[in-house]
Amino acid sequence: MQKLATTLLIALGIASLPAVADVASGQKLADKYAAVAKTIDPNFKPSADAGRAFFTRKILVHGKEISCSSCHTDNPANPGKHIKDGKPIKPLAPSANPKRFSDIDKVETNFEKHCLEVIGKDCTAQEKTDYITYLLSIK
Ligand code: HEC
């Protein structure tokens, strides 16, 4: 399924997003992920609430409870801090950091890495849509 989703992303032209960094890139990216999610569930509707729940959901990893918010904090408009090396992380919300979600390669690499770390597998197109929708809802 993951292979299919990736192929679809490429087919939908996600790889050719313009390099202009602004809040609109996040919306475009969310729309592309939503298009993929709809091929799996035609009734899928992006939900900021589901994205928020996903972002703060705690999962037990190697005896420690972690979530996306462990490093990115409960408020994605705030700067985060890496739980392992303590390094600062720039805010995830495009309203606070317009560079976010403008580089599809970076976004996909980070999703893959962090989803694997936190959930043990890559996130679905639906989860990614909801997640970005939530981040875009933060002003
Ligand atoms: C262990 C710490 C940590 C956790 C947990 C974590 N992240 Fe990250 N995240 C980072 C770091 C470090 C970066 C890259 C530094 C940067 O871009 O400022 C990053 C960047 C990202 C980006 C890149 C966005 C962009 O356009 O630049 C996405 C997407 C992302 N994380 C998603 C997630 C998701 C989804 C989860 C939960 C499943 C998650 N992260 C959990 C540390 C973490």
UniProtKB/TrEMBL annotation:
<keyword id="KW-0408">Iron</keyword>
<keyword id="KW-0479">Metal-binding</keyword>
<dbReference type="GO" id="GO:0009055">
    <property type="term" value="F:electron transfer activity"/>
</dbReference>
<dbReference type="InterPro" id="IPR009056">
    <property type="entry name" value="Cyt_c-like_dom"/>
</dbReference>
<keyword id="KW-0732">Signal</keyword>
<dbReference type="InterPro" id="IPR036909">
    <property type="entry name" value="Cyt_c-like_dom_sf"/>
</dbReference>
<dbReference type="GO" id="GO:0020037">
    <property type="term" value="F:heme binding"/>
</dbReference>
<feature type="domain" description="Cytochrome c">
    <location>
        <begin position="46"/>
        <end position="139"/>
    </location>
</feature>
<dbReference type="InterPro" id="IPR015170">
    <property type="entry name" value="DUF1924_SHP"/>
</dbReference>
<feature type="signal peptide">
    <location>
        <begin position="1"/>
        <end position="21"/>
    </location>
</feature>
<dbReference type="Pfam" id="PF09086">
    <property type="entry name" value="DUF1924"/>
</dbReference>
<keyword id="KW-0349">Heme</keyword>
<dbReference type="GO" id="GO:0046872">
    <property type="term" value="F:metal ion binding"/>
</dbReference>
<protein>
    <submittedName>
        <fullName>Cytochrome C</fullName>
    </submittedName>
</protein>
